[in-house]
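haha ok so turns out i had the wrong file open the whole time. this is the CORRECT one, sorry everyone. sequence first:
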Amino acid sequence: MGKIKFILIVILALILSPLSFYKIYAQPKIGGFLQLDKRFYINDNALPFDDFYNRFRFETSISPNDKLYLFSSVDFRFYDVARVDELNDLENINQLFPTNISLWEAYVSVYGFLFDDLDLKIGKQRISWGTADKLNQTDNLNSKDFSDIYNFTEKIPSWAVKLSYYLGDYNLTAVWLPNFEPVLLPRNGTSLFLGDALASFKDSVVLPASKLSSSMFAFKLSSNLAGWDYSFSYFNGYDDIPILTSLIYNSNPGSSNPGKAELSFPKIQVIGADFSTEISGIGFWGEGALIIPDEVVTYISAIGMNYQTVALDDKPYFKFTLGSDYTFPGGYYLNFQWMHGFFTERGSALNDYFFARLEKVLFNDQLKIALGGVLEVDKWDNVNENYGYGFFPELTYQGIDNLEIAVGTFLVGGKPATLLGSWNDANQAYLRVKVIF
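then structure:
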């Protein structure tokens, strides 16, 4: 507990010290949210990852003048389930009430840097690209946050230097990311996203070297034409999902450990484009990413034999998301998206996902009913054996400003070969309370 207190004091000092320095020049703003989640598994043979957490986000910002803006936020995650394995763990409050604290964002924005039309943003920041509703194929600059299976579209802010140049109707953005950050997976739930083929192997993960040549960069050109917002982008970096590069089987057939596995992160380039518009009250959007990977070879050693296989071909592949939304007479809101290629899928193994959500508000907008669903298709020539599905009904009370109270379920299933089918034992019901301040 002493370590957590020390970390908290240091983080708050970092946040509040610039505020006290500038308090005579500008009025600081404080905000954030508290989100309480209580979840329950529905299946008797539920998955063991139990990584359900609540969240408290504390944000501060200040503008000492019209050229400078500072922002920082701290993320607290406190978990529902105690992490107790032995009797001595009952003596440790950190095991009984697990809490994670992280500096979420901390950046400085400089407006009119060098030139009036050039802005600089430097520090730990969320850089969101793409026009799709959360299912973004071109949003590659921040690492994925899969720690909550229900919220698999989340991203983690990254340390970056961002330059934005405005030239008339055009905006040119350049980003440099000096450090690589891998995906965050759910505790004891890696198999939900990466499969369980290596579950019994002793594994190791190799990160890209911390040197200048391993840093990542990206560019984007965006504009608007006749009511159409569009952009073109380029990213040169790494995929944050690891891939198998070495597999050494144990020479002792009687051992409980079948062998060793090594994983690394493939080098990729991404050429992206997106658009959004509205026609007769109907919203349309789309984005696509042409991904050009470096070849990844897996080296295998088994029973005195050594050979290799191609884990990822260097052949480019294309992922996209298309979507539309519309509010029908009577206040019925419908959102539909087609996603070709989930975040973890590569190469030619890209499935199709069709997401839909219907919402209706009642009782003077105090109550919202939402029915969400998804259909996954693996192989179109044999859909009956290659499909997955999800159903996500939710009831939300929103009768008080800044407060949401929601109850709902997360129900998934399908054939075992599909992503959603492999999530069958993750079905859950939940109660969520969120206060924004």
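The helical segments are 2-22, 93-96, 191-194, 419-422.
again sry for the mixup
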